[in-house]
Structures are given as structure tokens and as C-alpha cells.
Amino acid sequence: MLVVNCGSSSLKYEVYEMPEGRSLGKGVVERIGMGVGNIDQESPRGEYHHEQEIKDHAVAMELVQRALIDSQYGLLSDLGQVVGVGHRVVHGGESYSQSVVIDTQVLAAIKQNIELAPLHNPANLTGIQESMKFFPGVPQVAVFDTAFHQTIPSSSYLYGLPYELYEKFKIRKYGFHGTSHRYVANEAVRFLKRAMENTNVISAHLGNGASITAVARGKSIDTSMGFTPLEGLVMGTRSGDIDPAIIFYLMERGYSPEELNTLLNKKSGLLGLSGISNDMRDVHKASLEGNTRAESALEVFAHRVRRYIGAYMANLVKVDALIFTGGVGQHAPHMRERICRRLENLGIVMDYEKNRENGSKLGIISTDYSPVTILVVPTNEELQIAKDTYSLVFGSAQA
Predict the structure, then answer these.
(1) Is 281 annotated as a binding residue?
(2) 2-144 — its CATH code?
(3) Is residue 70 annotated as a catalytic residue, yes or no?
(4) So what's the architecture of 194-381 in CATH?
(5) Which residues are annotated as site, described as Transition state stabilizer (predicted)?
(6) So where are the chain's domains?
(7) CA atoms within 13 A on the CB side of 15
(8) What are 320-339's pLDDT values in tens digits?
């Protein structure tokens, strides 16, 4: 199974042997349409690197094909070994609540939802179209970031706006990171040897982009990202939740819509608060050195995560597990500790020694007597896409 994640100027890919779920290697094509670009591929056989002008995604896909079957560092002996291609697609709107084999109707829906994801869906669509040309007759599967959250009720997805805005413009909460939240929820249930049917979890995907999801019996019932990925938690460069009136206040003081869009999406979050970096590692280092703005940024980040955990515990009523995943959730024990220090009254009791010793491995970091089990679960969206693709191509219940 070939997994493709196509961006506006990059194309990431990975090959999985299914149903074992074994990665044969992965690669990335960068600087597409920006003059001289490069492709880098890594596998147990070694690292493949090539540079040339990459004018468009067609050239990028051609480079991927060449790298896949390279005589020295290739991942495959023959392109005919690819029997399914899974594509990450950011936005499926209300059209799809699960992954689907791509046909003309699916392509039309992805195109229709470009207005909801103008930065991502066009690139995703291009990747699919080019893949169809280079792998004719091979089933192509769309795995939507938004699909997992289509089960959330209207009480969660509707905003307190005139209802005609939902009817006319489809303004509602969609949520993102769905593939990651679904993967780690399944992995946590498997690790705990529980049944999904009687398990409720809260999944915190914390990274440069961050979101948190309440999962009841395998279904998303609420999530922090909304109409766009800007809503919710404080992130690397995104503000997360703010008072909407701040936008009008700043517009009255000369800010343009474009400047505000850049401000909220690219200059806020940890970067804006700390004035140092959007990278949690840099902010944490500065905090340890006594930088008060860095310390404040970390506290704001943790506070926002705690607030959502509390809200989701109220809605789920019974919570069996709290999952940390994503770049920060998996690799920053100091932030996990900072978040959990005030959650004991909710039955979330961290074992701080276990948390520090665990580092970033799959494992339990709560005390034996904690009513809610706290876990670190490394995410793997590419493997989930491969599972979905395998399931749809071969009719397996693997996913």
C-alpha cells in the first residue's frame, strides 16, 4: 500500500506491507514548483537523494516512481507491487464520515470542499489526479481528516450563529486530526485489553498543530478544532480560542483581514506568547533559563488543554483513559506533567516518575490507583491510512 500526503509544495509518501502493517520505507519530495527541488527517501537499504527542477506534482510523482524502484535504494522491485494508494485528504465536509474508494463523485466532493480548505484540498486533489495517471487501474482511497468527527452531535458542531449561516455556507465545527485521534484511540483500547464498546477516552494530539477529542465507544462526540484548525487549543503559531470581538477591535485600529489572518495563524500561539519560537523544545529551554514570557507561554498552553479535558470529562460522564500523542504529547514529559498537575480531583492521577522514565514510548504513566488511566500512544496516521486502504481494497475488517 502506497500512502500519499500531498501538500502545495511537497509530497510525502510511505509504503506499507499489509496486512502486517510493516513500513518498507518513506520519502518526501520538497520545493515543488519552486525551481530546484529534492527527493529524499529512507529505507533499511539506505538513503536515496536526488535534486532537479520539479515544476509540478506530475514531475514529483515521476520522481517518486523512480525512487520506489531504484536498483540500490528502492522500496519495491516492481511498481506492479502497489495494489492500493491511500491519500490523506484534509476536508470531506459533511459528505463523508469514513474513508472511501475514490471515484468521480468523491473527486467532485473534494473539489466542492476546496472553499472549506483552500490551502489543502487543491493539493490533495492534485496528488490524487497525478497518482491515478501513474498507477492506472490501481484503487485509490481517500482518508479524510474530518471524517472521524462526523459523528459529533449538532449540540457540539453548531455555533451560536443564525442557523441560515449553517444552511447557506455550511458554517459548523468540522474538526481535524481525525485520522490520528482514531488511530490512538484504537491503539489505547488494544493496549489496555478493553473492548471499544464500553470504553471512553480523551485523546490529546499535541504538536505544532494541536487538538483534543472526546471519544465515546469508538466515536468522536466533541473536538476542539472547529470550522478551521484555528479554533481550540493554543498551538505553535495559532491562537486557538479568542474573543471574536478582538478581530473587530484590531480592524478599527488599522489591521486588514489579511494581516489578521496571518497574525492569528502564523504569529500567535507559543511563538507569539514567548517571542522565542513555535517549537516547544525552545520555549521549554528558555523557561528553564528563567525567561518569564516562555514560562507564561507554557502555562497558557497547559491551561487550555486542562480546560478542554475538564469539559470533555463532563460530557463523557465516564472516562477510562487520557491519551497523549503528537510531537509534544509524545515527546515532552514536562508538558504532560504540567497539564496533569491539577487534574487529580477529576480522577486523573499521574505517576510523575513513570512519566519521566517513559519518555516517548507506548505506555501507562498514571498511578495504579488512578481512576483514569493516562497513556502515551505514538500516533501513526500513515499506518491508519494504509489500514483503511487495505480494508477497502480487500474487504477486510483490518481497519
Answers:
(1) yes
(2) 3.30.420.40
(3) no
(4) 2-Layer Sandwich (3.30)
(5) 177, 238
(6) 2-144, 194-381
(7) 21
(8) 999 999 999 999 999 999 99
